[in-house]
Amino acid sequence: MPFKNLKHQATTIFANDKATAKERMAQICELLRDGVGYYDWVGFYFANHDTKTLHLGPYVGEETDHTVIPFGKGICGQVAVSNNNFVVPDVKIQDNYIACSMTVKAEIVVPIFKDGVNVGQIDIDSNTIDPFSPKDEEFLEWICEQVAMIM
Ligand code: SME
Fold first, then answer.
1. What is the mean pLDDT of residues 125-150?
2. What does each C-alpha distance from 14 to 10, 25, 30 come to in angstroms?
3. Of 69, 76, 85, 86, best ligand 1 pocket probe by most atoms within 8 Å of the beta carbon
4. Does 1 score more than 90 pLDDT?
5. Terminus of the chain with fewer CB atoms < 10 Å: N or C?
6. CA of 137 to the centre of ligand 1 (A)
7. CA angle, 2 as apex, 151 and 58 as ends, to 5°?
8. What distance in angstroms lies between residue 98's CA and the mean position of ligand 1's atoms?
9. Nearest protein Cα to ligand 1, atom 3
10. What is the distance between the alpha carbons of residues 55 and 58, in angstroms, rounded to a whole number?
11. In contact, 131 and 106? CB cutoff 8 Å
12. Is 74 in the pocket of ligand 1 (CB under 6 A)?
């Protein structure tokens, strides 16, 4: 599904204030996983700045053991520190990577900023090698802006 259509559907989900923020985030995970063929695992992590750890929030896809990730560790932990998008076209050539599943070939992580603070991120795993383009980044940055607004 083109990102334009997904934005339209996501807008409806975000605007539904009868659902909790967590419920809406879970629906966003489903929308993205179902709408983009190469998004196989979609989830959110949220930062605890006191303990310097990321905590798994709503997600869809295979269950993961990595429900808590220290800042700096793995792709997610690096984004907690760098405040930048991290696009990994091929996870095999990353040293600082936490494998969740043997089927994952690529990953993209985009931070969520609330009032200028990096409060979490969206994390997407793909079973396709090198699937992400700047259009994914632009779309996911938009998703993260909307998430910040309902947090
Ligand atoms: N691969 C991630 C860990 C999270 S799982 O993809 C769900 C990382 O290296 O940070």
1. 98
2. 6, 8, 13
3. 76
4. no
5. C
6. 17
7. 30
8. 5
9. 98
10. 10
11. yes
12. yes
